[in-house]
Specification:
The chain is of the alpha+beta class. Among the domains are: about 110 residues, Nucleotidyltransferase, domain 5; about 140 residues, Rossmann fold; about 110 residues, Dna Ligase, domain 1. Helix content is about 30%, strand content about 25%. The protein contains 16 helices and 38 strands. The strands form ten sheets. Strands 13, 14, 15, 20, 25, 26, 34, 37 and 38 form a nine-stranded mixed β-sheet that branches. A seven-stranded mixed β-sheet has the order 12-11-4-1-2-3-31. It has a four-stranded parallel β-sheet with strand order 6-5-9-10, with helices on both faces. Strand 14 and strand 15 form a beta hairpin. The longest helix is centred in the N-terminal third of the chain and has 31 residues. It is globular and about 80 Å long. The protein starts with a strand and ends with a strand.
Amino acid sequence: MASARIGVDIGGTFTDLVLLDDKGQVTFTKVSSTPAAPEEAVLTGVERILQQAGLKTDDVTEVLHGTTVGSNTMLQKVGAKCGLITTKGFRDVLEIGRVRTPTMFDLTWDKPTPLVERRYRLEVDERTLASGEVERPTPVAEIIKAGEFFKSEGVESVAICFINSYKNGENEAAALEAFQKNFPDISVTASISVLPELREYERTSTTVVNAYVLPALRTYLQRLENGLKRIGVNAPLLVSNSNGGLSSARIAQDTPVFFISSGRSAGVVGAGRLGQAREDNDLVVFDMGGTTASASLIQDGQLARTNEYEFRAGISTPSRFIKAGGYMMRVPTIDVAEVGSGAGSIAWIDAGGLLNVGPISAGAFPGPVCYGIGGERPTVTDANAVLGFLPPSLAGGTMDLRISAARDAIDSILAKPLDISVEEAAVGIREVVNVNMARTIKAVTVERGVDPRDFTLMAFGGSGPVHACDLARTLDMKRVVFPAAPGVFTAMGMLAGAVERYFVRPFLEPLDSLDLRALARHVAEMRDDAAKALASEGYTADRIQYVFELDMRFKGQDYEIPVAVPETLDESALAKLRQGFRDAYTAMYGYASNDAIECANVRLLARGVATKTLDFRNIRSSAKASGQAERSSRRVYFNRESGWVDTPIVPRQLLDKEIAGPVILESSDTTIVIPPGWRVSTDKVGSVIASLA
């Protein structure tokens, strides 16, 4: 019996699907996204890709999904009307935050508006001491009174976060039980279910974000699950989380804060797996879609990860140096910098007469002008179409481009007001967006003491390959790698992922007097919890991997660095932990003092290994050369100096030897632009390699 796994990534313009069958054959397709009902594009794509692969709905064993519902809910501020129940005296934790600003000298900066209005932040007279002793139990009557107020005010989702509940969750659990029993129609999140860690602000903020996006993501995933069953797909739905792993849809519905960056991180995981297959362990991963562009770092084969993330306007990044600029989520995540510069980003002229691009995007509807579905303002895609970078039709010939309409829009809205030619205006759009995207790469390299010139740029996404070589030249990078199917690579990356569960326990101990027996007890108990959790999802003991870390810091500091816990907790473990922390601290900050070290938390990442995952060394694509199966040419405007250049157009599948640019490689999922001065070839796993001559 045939079997298949399907990866799905919803972007701002297109929804990408990749199918991996039991023979290792890969099939992919793209359909237009449906922002009003994202699941409709998924269902359309699933039916289409099964038809392309010649398979039935019964053949599907898993659907792996990356969704932007959580991030879009945050970005557009359309989450649930929220309430907060907290300990008396801690009503304003969200307002106080970290008592700092992201930029010291910016007097125009405004603190993000809390996701819960102050009138909906209610206090109850309970108290758990720092030791874990319950001084005052939960006043159930006050919980019910708060719930009645929320119900009368139309509050849709409530967060419960009590002081010191990470040490003893008894009071918070009692409050959760009372609220669920009396107000079943209101969603509720308790901090002990999301983040049982010290620090009241981080814990409160993370719990509130979970409550804010919970109804939207839960409703969406329920609609998607029901829709899949309606078309005959009864396979489990797994959702990509912010750390690049996979979790069941049930977990995503209960703890959506772990899925705010769903999908985006899957591409980085795929890039890491592809890098291993290519034996290329130092990569800058660049992903440009229709709405945003993002960058991440893979160094010595290790993905950059962090345990906290701030969602904010402009560049969103888990930078350890920039705090308080957005909504704090203390959850495991791939360390990705993201900016609102994508192919659908709208170009505009500001009050000072300067050309800007983004962050507003035309999205899937009305889309770029050249799509002909209602867009009236020029975008990056329109500029690329006018300059000849894009073919006459996209998405395997399903969308014809109206290049003349794009040209007229650029002319009337940008070129004439700036008194320049249409070509100069279009080149200007590309230059501005390239500078914006270069900032994301610098955020994960230069700003962290890493020289991007020592790395290979791996570019994917629907539009990443159109800009990657110019972007690399800007950063003085000499080498760019494009995966075999770069336009759908994020969806493909999900097929390389594994189911993950996360566990954390507070463990505040000085390193010099660390109780190794207590640490071993925590490790054993957390391992048992993880084994039970993954067993409920069908993973036997031999298919579970455990990664333990200890959060450590110098005494007196407020932020920790995770350090791997030695497999054997004997007398040598303390020395290994100390050296591991000092090495990690030096790598991050450039030095390490001789101050006392203390531990804060024990973390566990438990990974369930799938029986069939994507192997980039042994995949076969079912895609045929789309559009013209023969080589052709068209005029392309690369820059002001070159002007219009007759450029060879080569179907991606026909590239069989090294050739010199300029050349444009076309396939049904994306277009790869190789400018003058570059050379391009393929490697042993089917990737396209561009090198600066």
